[in-house]
Amino acid sequence: MSIRPLVIIPDSRLRLVSDPVVRVDAKVRALVEDMFETMYEAPGIGLAAIQVGVPERVVTIDVGPREGEDEDGEEEGERKKNPIALINPEIIAASDELSVYSEGCLSIPEYYAEVERPARVRVRYMDLSGETREIDAEGLLATCVQHEIDHLNGVLFIDHISKLKRDRVVKKFTKIAREKERDGA
């Protein structure tokens, strides 16, 4: 297992549509292990393979509660791990009811915005054994699953906010990327 470097906007790879995984093999399982390690180290609650530069339809998620956390998510502690790996995930049903969460993204560091999405979704995916499964997700899990599946389709959470806010974010990160390039970082 190894921690992989994260792809940060404005990197054009984040706009790629990821390829389906043909079969779950040792290479895919190793990718998933690396993705979990990278996600936990960041720290984050979800990661799409494209965020580590691999254009395949693989997602890792862990929205498990933290030790000592109350119902409102107050008090941070050690996370109780509840890892989920989704291969070739697809949303097959979504509720009409919507919910709003403040979303962030490991590929857009330290930027958060309110995003409205369906409150509940049903997702079909393959597990690490190659078996087809379905899960019903609501709350934070539903938001996270939708956010990560968006990544597989070249969509970022900032695409769900106003054009003005999105343009400001992209401009800021483009400037940072240019400065790093100029400084040889």
TrEMBL record:
Reaction catalysed by this enzyme: N-terminal N-formyl-L-methionyl-[peptide] + H2O = N-terminal L-methionyl-[peptide] + formate
Cofactor(s), by name: Fe(2+)
GO molecular function, one term: peptide deformylase activity
Note on how the cofactor is bound: Binds 1 Fe(2+) ion.
Alphabetical GO biological process terms: translation
Binding-site list for Fe cation: 105, 147, 151
Pfam families, per database record: Pep_deformylase
Gene3D superfamilies: Peptide deformylase (3.90.45.10)
Enzyme Commission code(s) on record: 3.5.1.88
Residue positions of the active site: 148
Keywords attached to this entry: Hydrolase, Iron, Metal-binding, Protein biosynthesis
HAMAP family hit by this protein: Pep_deformylase
Family to which this protein belongs: Belongs to the polypeptide deformylase family.
Function, as annotated: Removes the formyl group from the N-terminal Met of newly synthesized proteins. Requires at least a dipeptide for an efficient rate of reaction. N-terminal L-methionine is a prerequisite for activity but the enzyme has broad specificity at other positions.
Name of the protein in its database record: Peptide deformylase
Species of the source: Ancylobacter mangrovi
Gene name for this UniProt entry: def
